[in-house]
Give the backbone structure.
Amino acid sequence: MTFYDEWRDWMLANRKPIDKATWDQMCGSGQMRFNSARGWSRYPTKAVDSAQIVANNSGDLNEDRDAAPVAAWHFFSIAGINNGHVGQGAKPGGGCLAMMSATCPEMVGLDVGFSSVQHYLDARPAARYLGWSTNYAGGLALPIDGSATAGLNEQPVEEDDMFNDSDRALAGIATAAVGRIEVGVYALNKKVDSLLGTDALLLWATTDSKDGLRQMVAVVQTAIAKIKTGTVLSDADLAALEAVVKSVPTADIAAAATATADEIDRRALERLSTDKASVITSLAALGK
């Protein structure tokens, strides 16, 4: 599997972040989440509060985009304090970067996909290319397919005295925890996608009791709440989600569509009746 394939599979499994509507304005966070999910060769040792701060903490940047190896991080400066952007090379050079941006020409999820150095500069005239580095605030990507490609041309970064061995151990634990959460999110996404992508849900939602509908929502909300707090989904949680999916009937889809259309018409007529009554009342008041 190529590094491009790794990024694309992760994007497909994480089409949107669990804490925002889209990936836009989350370029640095997305880089941390992807690389933490696959594991770091060395965890970042410096501040990663913004893409510009990471760029400042990643040693000397090489402005020759064509010389960049796979998995190198490419940094951009944008007008404003600590306002920058970052993408990771899915292929050698600067022609294919994995990034979180609404400008990506090859969109895989919600504002996440692939772009190039030049395309990003063209789409954001205020941006300036700073260069690339194979470390991310001191962090190093895992080798790709067992090779040492990600470590080539590494620029040394001064160690932070405040980041000791104990901190590194905790960082390793945090990385493992993020990986488990990502697995849970992927499992939940598959379950929810299979549920919401089923047309038969229309029939089920219009014929089942309210208690049944509330139970379905409760199961999904419970799973989401656990993931947001870093709790790994248990076999029982996944079984409950599986049960929700299996509870959707596979009855006549045409009948479901008709029932749904009838309900929409009924609600529209109800609104018109209410509006008509309101107009009559208002006219009566004016006549007094």
